[in-house]
Amino acid sequence: MTVALDGRVVRSGWTLRVDGLEIGEGVTAVVGANGTGKTTLGRAVAGLDRLAGGRLAIAGTVVDDPAAGVYLPAHQRRVGMVFQDLRLFGHLRVVDNVAFGLRRTGTDRTAARRRAGELLERVGVDSGVWSKRPAALSGGQRQRVAIARALAPEPEVLIVDEPLASVDSSGRAGLRALIGESPARHTLLITHDPVDVATLARQLVVLDSGEVASRGSVAEVTARPGCEWAATFLGANVVPGLARGTSVTTQAGLVLAVAAEAEGPVYVTFPAHAVTLHRDRPAGSARNAWQAELERVDIDGERARVHLGGPIKVRADVTRRSADELELHPGLNIWASVKATELTVVT
Amino acid sequence: MAGRSVDGDHRRGRATRRQAAIAVTAALLLGVSCSGSGGSETRHDREVVVMAASSLTDVVEAVASSDPNVTAILSGSSTLVAQLSAGAGADVLITADAATMDRATADGSIRGKPVVIATNTVVLATAPGNPGGVAGLADLARRDLLVGLCAPEVPCGTLARRALDEAGIVPSVDTLELSVRALAAKLSLGELDAGLVYDTDAAVVGLSRVDAPELDGHANRYFIASASAEPSPAVQAVMDAFTETGGAGAEALLAHGFGPP
Amino acid sequence: MSAPGGARTAPGPDPGVSRPPAALTIVGFVALGLLALPIVGLLQRAPWSALPTVLGESEVLEALRVSLIVSLVATAACVVLGLPLAFVLARRRLRFGRVVRALVMLPMVLPPVVAGTALLFALGRRGLVGQWLDSWFGVSLPFTTAGAVVAAAFVALPFFVVTVEAALRQAGDDLDEAAATLGAGAWSTLLHVTLPTIRPALAAGTALAWARAVGEFGATLTFAGNFPGRTRTLPLETYLALERNPEAAVAISLVLMAVALAVLVTLRDRWMPR
After folding, report:
1. CATH class of A3-235
2. Where are the domains of chain B?
3. Closest Cα of chain C to B35: distance in Å?
4. Which residues, at least 6 apart from C172, have a Cβ–Cβ distance to it below 8 Å?
5. Which residues pair with A30 in a beta bridge?
6. Is the Cβ–Cβ distance between A269 and A195 less than 8 Å?
7. CATH code 3.40.50.300 region(s) in chain A
8. What are the start-end ranges of the H helices in C48-96?
9. Would you call C45 an interface residue with chain B, using a CB distance cutoff of 8 Å?
């Protein structure tokens, strides 16, 4: 079962072209720089934007094919959407927002409300606010309501657009878990957060300038990102750990010094080019240094991507010349370091 | 410079005010706002403000165009009297009947002695081509016709009612127009089948007439009076133009088909 | 920084930064006086003790009945016709959108007498469309209560359309899209999302249209004429009463004004954004 798109969408003079994209089951992350067409792709699948040409099929059923005169409107597709700006119904209570989709498909009010209650419980919205209007809720709670609302009609495809953009850090881990547990057969996660990709995505689609630059499993796409933006984005290292003040202890016990204070479970992210490699233990300002085992070196033009094992799995980008000077080869024991100011702590 | 003509027609004045009031959306109040006076308060030394019944529109405008000092305010007689009593400034009042002039003298807003300057009769007028087949005054009782009269509040309405009462005819009225000109206009558009209008107004819009002997002898008299018991020379000159044979006003009355006093 | 003195009692924006210059404030209050003065004038002439007698006159009651019927039917017509028009204006890309929008607003700025005359030429017995209504269906609108309804609806319709269109534009189609992804079709979305979202504007537009319909005078008089019990509404009765019995005119004016104020105050408090 796949969502298969082969076509183009035109939005106010701007075109998204997708050739032979197949989205498999589970969570697929759609990444790309701003304005590359991530949201447009989601809208086309949902039926909010029509194809200008080509064909879109969901689980084998053609839902949009202009040449054949086929267009199944959004409300007849089983595609749910969590909008970036949420779009909760301000005139309805929280519970009725969630019950909305069920009511439209003929479920009676009592049953729809009961089911909405179950979903709200599952996404962790306290029953004390069920009869309030969405405006009375916090950003994180509203985000949960929006997810519950989209899931209520049991869509085959769930599209989640930048789910954590408007949520403060304390609520992120829980929301991320919710998306990971999405019961929809296909979940399309539109994001620009490397942590989302590292923790949730099974597959990855990279968009660049209105076209698919790369797609496949996370490992496949990481190996050939297809564009500069994705290379940098996917080169980002994501290391889980436990924060205490300005230090983060990784699972293997490595302690990293960070610039910002935090408490509890976190992810430390840093770009591959921020990692420096040394033959000997480095001295000086780079306090975060550890000994690693070199697993593999990928040469790509003037750039060398070095995959390191050891206490943390990390990628390091160095110039090809440095790689030659350091005589890098698999199995080599080498020192890696990264400045505290290069580390971003994400909860 | 030609004499200015202040538009005293109430409906136009109200319309302008309404446009402005729409901005504050207090639309409901507007139907009421017509109660204010439309008279001109500021006067130059030689200016003579003449308030005249709307049936005299053409006559007064003719006088105003030959005398630059005359400013005309035209409206239904009863409206003019109400405006005067509310304090509107005017030097000369011309009404279309005795009753309205009596009201003005009774409440003291007119102190000069009223003089008859002309008469006017009502005629039975029909839509162009007489599509309703009106044959006489008694046909005004036909329910299948659209019949219009002047409202009893204005002189042409009083006159029409008196004539109909005397003839023993109960008309099947569809509208009581607030001015004889409005009534004549609706007849000429063919929206009404028949109505009683002044002879002069029927002539102005070229209405077809049907003989109605019952209307003979029913005429109203136009009265002129000055506001002050001792009018200024300028005001007296305007009065004379209407009262003296050969005066500009008297000539205009004759020219527009009004009867002699 | 806060305002000196303690004159302000109502909550509002902090005047410290947004306070207008003194001269502006003074002129503002002069304008307020201009608006309030006629009302004061009416109140000081009010025959309070005679009010029940005057308002109980059969002419007044009859005019009240005609006014209620005409204004309520006209308002209903405004809602039924205005809602689709507001949707067309807000949601469709019209070829001559600016012209169409100007056309819709025209009755708001048109002198009502002109509106009445135009209606006469269009729907009168000899009018453009009216002649066919007359010869095919035997329907003639002028000088009938239905004609008064048409006149009132003509001048009141823009108030409803403009109010609702603005709300529709402001709401956009974001919520409609959300509803579609939840399985709601066009009618279902309209009923369960769009209309409830613009409910305050619907109420405000209806109230404004009704207020305008009640106050209608010029177009009614020109198009529908004046006949007691049929087309003579309260404003016409006020006009006639002014010449027959000024006390009655003041009394009816007071009633109309009280109703208008009630509508506007309620609008302000409940439906209009502060």
Report:
1. alpha beta
2. 5-118+221-255, 120-219
3. 7
4. none
5. A190, A205
6. yes
7. 3-235
8. 51-55, 58-91
9. no
CB contact, 8 Å: C206 with chain B? no
Q: Do C257 and B28 touch (CB under 8 A)?
A: yes
What whole-number distance in Å separates Cα of residue B193 and Cα of residue B131?
7
Q: Give the distance from residue C218's alpha carbon to the nearest chain B alpha carbon, in angstroms.
A: 7
Per-residue pLDDT of chain A (347 residues; tens, 9 = 90+): 789 999 999 987 789 999 889 999 999 999 998 888 999 999 999 999 999 999 999 999 999 999 999 999 999 999 999 999 999 999 999 999 999 999 998 899 999 999 999 999 988 899 999 999 999 998 889 999 999 999 999 999 999 998 887 677 777 788 888 888 888 999 999 998 888 888 899 999 999 989 998 999 988 888 788 888 888 888 888 888 999 988 999 988 899 998 888 888 888 888 888 899 988 888 765 578 999 999 988 887 788 889 998 888 898 988 988 888 888 889 899 999 998 888 888 87
Q: Do C217 and B24 touch (CB under 8 A)?
A: no
Q: Is residue A172 within 8 Å of A163, Cβ to Cβ?
A: no
Contact C256, C215 (CB under 8 A): yes
Count, residues in chain B: 261
Alpha helices in chain C (DSSP H): 15-18, 22-44, 51-55, 58-91, 97-109, 112-123, 130-132, 145-171, 174-181, 186-189, 195-197, 199-215, 218-219, 234-244, 246-266
- CA–CA distance, B232 with A51 (Å, rounded to integer): 87
Please give, rounded to a whole number of angstroms, the shortest distance from the CA of C234 to a CA of chain B: 8
Distance CA C225, CA C72 (A): 19
Query: Tell me, what's the ipTM?
Result: 0.82
Q: Is the pTM of this model over 0.80?
A: no
In chain C, the number of structural domains is 1
Which regions of chain A carry the CATH code 2.40.50.100? 238-346
C-alpha to C-alpha distance for A154 and C117, rounded to whole angstroms: 60
* Contact between chains at C109 and B19 (C-beta distance less than 8 A): yes
What 8-state DSSP symbol labels residue A92?
A: S
Q: What would the CATH number be for the domain defined by A238-346?
A: 2.40.50.100
List CB contacts (< 8 A) between C193 and chain A: 89
pLDDT (tens digit, 9 = 90+) per residue, A62-93? 999 999 999 999 999 999 999 999 999 999 99
Q: Which residue of C has its CA nearest to B148?
A: C225
Report H helices in chain B. 10-22, 57-66, 77-85, 98-106, 155-167, 180-188, 199-205, 233-243, 248-255
CATH of the domain at C92: 1.10.3720.10
Nearest CA in chain B to C238: B32
The 10 Å Cβ neighbour count of residue A11 is 15
- Contact call for A and B: 3+ CB–CB distances under 8 Å: no
Are residues A94 and A133 in contact, defined by beta-carbon separation less than 8 angstroms?
yes
Question: Which residue carries 């000899």 as its tokens?
Answer: C126
Which residues, at least 6 apart from C257, have a Cβ–Cβ distance to it below 8 Å? B28, B29, B32, C39, C42
User: Which tokens in the block code for residue B205?
Assistant: 């819009």
- Report the DSSP beta bridge partners of residue C53: none
Contact C225 B175 (CB under 8 A): yes
Q: Residue type at A269?
A: T
- What span, in angstroms and rounded, lies between the C-alpha atoms of C148 and C141? 8
pLDDT digits (tens, 9 = 90+) for B153-182: 888 899 999 999 999 999 999 999 988 889
Which of A48, A92, A105 is closest, CB to CB, to C180? A48
Q: What is the topology classification, in CATH, of domain B5-118+221-255?
A: D-Maltodextrin-Binding Protein; domain 2 (3.40.190)
Which chains lie within 8 Å of chain A at 3 or more CB pairs, if any?
C
CATH superfamily of B120-219: Periplasmic binding protein-like II (3.40.190.10)
**Interface contact A75, partner C, CB < 8 A:** yes
Question: Under an 8 A CB cutoff, do C239 and B82 touch?
Answer: no
